[in-house]
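Input.
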Amino acid sequence: MIKPKQQLPQEVVTKTTFVRLIFFWLSTFIFTGLVNFGLLWYLKYFPQNEGYSRIEEKWQLMLNLSEPVDVLILGDSSCHQGVDPSIIEADLNVKALNLCTIADALVVNSAWMLDKYIEKHGAPKAVVLVYVYDVWHRDLNWNVMSQIPLSWGFWHNLDPEIEISFDAQWNLFLDRYVPLYSKDQSIKHIFANPHDWFQKESRDEIEEYGSASEANPKYVEENTEAHFEFVEENKFKLSESNRLALEKIISLANDEDFDVYLVNSPLYEGLYKNDNFRDYLQDLQITLDSYERENDRVYYLFREPRKFADNQMENADHVIESAAEIFSHELAEDINKIRETREREKRN
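Output.
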């Protein structure tokens, strides 16, 4: 028996009108805007990128500071994890504040923090700058700089002033205000882990100093290989952004009468078996030596970085808590020796 042919269903297309088109685009725009603002709120209180959130948190810590401190500790994540301000306070009998953020914030972020701090509280007695050797070559990353919680155009209002192109400003705008576009990895993580949506710590609990309790020797070795690749492919250079920022900090030290301590971060001892690493580090040392030699207010500490074993490290340039305690005491001891030497010189 032959089945009768069945007629395929036909799509009925509603006639498009100008009003319908406007309604469609307007509703899409409103919906997208609501989602975007919802993500802005969520990521503010439940951040997914620890490095980015640290920049904003440390800035807020400084901006909300009610009383001045004696020692400002500035630098990257190796400093955030490696310099315990309570030890600096106890050993030097000072009030200290750790405002260290991440490597890609550069020395520029430290210079801007210091500039803003002095504007509010006046100059500290000393500034400690702690950086990993491979930070000094890096240049501006505006995705990172967009995390600074200051009003639009802050890069023109702080010293050193930075000129950025229209394209860079547009990218900065997207990164700061349009997380649907700029925070795609965070959004993927959110939807992949719905059970973690509201499990992050409150942003009110700012972590001035973040220690790691457990070593990770296996990852230390893996990370060391990445460092070896870096020094094999690159020669040391001081980026223009970092140069301007460092010279601004030194200029402020001379004008405002405070000391600047340049500090190499603690490192895994296994890095030193590589000739390229030692050559790269030597070029950095020569550069920072010149700033100490040419400026009476600048002191270069741990010129030969403090080395630790793999069972004292989280990765090749981040120590765990027990090593951070050692490093912090030794840093305070070196600063104290300089202070005592200067006091003796004054008496004589």
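The first helix runs from residue 18 to 45.
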